[in-house]
Amino acid sequence: MLLSFPCHCPFLVTWSLVTAFNRLRHLSRYLLLVTCHSSLVTAFNRLPLTMINVRLYTPTDKKLWDSYVLNHPDSTHCHLSGWKNVIEKAYGHKAYYLIAFLSFNSINSSNPINSTNPTNPSNPSNPSNPIVGVLPLIHMKSFLFGNQLVSMPFLNYGGVLADSDEAARELLEEAMAIASRLKVSSVELRHINPILCLNSMNPINSSSSRLQDSTRNSSPVTRHWLWGSTRNSSPVTCHWLWGSTRNSSLVTRHCLWGSTRNSSLVTRNWLQGSTRNSSPVTCHWLWGSTRNSSPVTCHLLERTHKVRMVLNLPDSKEALLKSFKSKLRSQISRPEKEGMTATIGGADLLDSFYNIFSVNMRDLGSPVHSRRLFHEICSEFPESVRIGVVNYKDASVAAGLIFCFRETVEIPWASSLKEFNKFSPNMLLYWSLMEYACDHGFKYFDFGRSTPDEGTYRFKEQWGARPTPIYWHNIALNGHAAGNNRSDKSKYDKLIQYWKKLPLPISNRVGPVIRKRISL
After folding, report:
1. Quick check: bond before 452 cis, omega within 30?
2. Which element (helix H / strand E) includes 101?
3. Cα–Cα distance between 410 and 396 in angstroms, integer?
4. If you write DSSP's letter for every residue of 437-499 in order, what string do you get?
5. Cα torsion 459, 465, 467, 471: sign
6. Which helix (H) or strand (E) holds 103?
7. Which of 143, 308, 407, 518 has the fewest beta carbons under 10 Å from its own?
8. Distance CA 472, CA 9 (A)
């Protein structure tokens, strides 16, 4: 018996074959896409992903820290790691030295700065150094003078040193977290240049002493950042809401960030603005962090009431002397005619320096630093510190300590005995130190900080020094007033007069106990 098929059977067979072929083709494409995607993911995961992280300095970081400082164009000797040892040993203050560095994908290690770190493209002079920023902080706490973090106390300069605004922000964020844990009233940063990330937080940039507040033309500006961790494959969403009176419209920006900073979410809320048409101007920041479990409200005050006095040095001391006015040259030669001589050395002249320094501070009515502070300075920086002493007959009558750093010589401390001032020994002292700087190839002589139009300012100006602003930022925390910390000498007049009458042994004994708690 013959089997019969419907007339459309060949069509069904053909259709089934075509369908099967199309399915196989789609399956092969899917498998190809999956394979390519897996390969791309694997290749991406193998990329040397870098990010900025911040942690505390350890003694093993000394070489990298100082190498970074020496290669940074805005650094001063005040940023060197050795000052941590000096201040901790001499005065017992706790130091918090912060390092911002580049690291690979995972930064679980407590000390991730090692040979496996990536190169640093932001530092072409030293690309193998993963450090991208440092911030030295000293914790100073006393009943009379308050509780604060300072960078750097007893010195003219300090503050944030970073390759980028991002690194500076990370350092400042960590500083605020430490400040919150220590319950300090303020953080003081002494910069020689404006810090852009601070200025970006400050709508007002024109005032030499500005205090910022929370209303920019009565329109608040609110930023909400939510950061989290990519360790657990959890995305981090950031929402920024900016308000602008320029176009009366709100600008909303949404971005997706990942962070390996910690395994928990970190929320930051900043409220910014200013009162442009009113005075004073205050800036309020609200920092919230899981580091300290509570938000931190900050008030920023920037002061440029003091200046840095720097003299450009020529190639030779002869050229320098020739550049002075005849009156100044006469003042330099007078002490030599009186029989005074100048000597420059190291720690061997420390006793002569301190004897003059302590007498001069007592005569000025000011508590004196401890001798141990200068001993630790000479011990920590034996190649950088020099002491100049002017002698008259068998007595030392003037002395100064200089710090040599890169192309600059700075003189932070100098004194002379008032009974010999009529012979101008300080003129010979400064000239001998400038001679030393010229003979050793330095290009700049830094006279330190001064207040414009005061006596020390005019003294430094006569040598040809030119003023440049110093930017001192005072960040007050959690409702404390952003005070300007300027010394109101009038309320201390009686104390100054009493101090001048103290016997030297007593002032030398009591003075360091007080002076160690004063950050100036």
Report:
1. no
2. strand 94-103
3. 22
4. HHHTT--EEEEEEE-TTSHHHHHHHTTT-EEEE-EEEEEEETT---------GGGGHHHHHHH
5. negative
6. strand 94-103
7. 143
8. 93
> For 245-364, where are the E strands, in sequence order?
249-257, 266-272, 284-287, 296-303, 307-312, 340-345
Q: What is the pLDDT of residues 366-423, one digit of tens each?
A: 999 999 999 999 999 999 999 999 999 999 999 999 999 999 999 999 999 999 999 9
C-alpha span between 195 and 160 (Å, rounded): 8
- Report helix, strand or coil for 418: helix
* DSSP summary character for residue 369: P
Tell me if residue 187 falls in helix, strand or coil: strand
Whether 332 has a pLDDT exceeding 80, the answer reads: yes
Residue 513: Cβ within 10 Å count: 10
Element (H, E) at 15: helix 9-45
Collapsing DSSP to helix, strand or coil, 109 comes out as coil
- Look at residue 267 and tell me whether its pLDDT is greater than 90: no
Task: Calculate the average pLDDT of the chain.
Answer: 78
List the one residue out of 299, 322, 276, 337 whose CA is nearest residue 473.
299
- Asked whether the beta carbons of 210 and 281 are under 8 A apart, the reply is yes
d(CA 350, CA 385): 11
Report pLDDT digits (tens) over 3-52. 444 555 555 656 666 676 677 777 777 677 666 666 665 655 555 556 89
- Which of 100, 97, 101, 186 lies closest to 140, judged by CA? 186
Is the pLDDT confidence value at 456 over 80? yes
When pLDDT is cut at 50, 70 and 90, the band that residue 460 belongs to is: very high
DSSP state of 21: H
Unique residue bearing structure tokens 């003023």: 467
Residue with tokens 């912060």: 98
- Domains of the chain (ranges; CATH) run 51-201 (3.40.630.30), 209-303 (no CATH), 307-468+487-515 (3.40.630.30)
Mean pLDDT of 464-475: 95
Structure-block tokens of residue 153: 């106390």
- Assigned token pair, 305: 């009431």
How many CB atoms neighbour CB 55 within 10 A? 18
Determine the Cα–Cα distance for residues 400 and 345; give it in Å rounded to an integer: 11
* C-alpha–C-alpha distance, residues 204 and 283, integer Å: 9
> What gap in Å lies between CA 477 and CA 292, rounded to an integer?
14
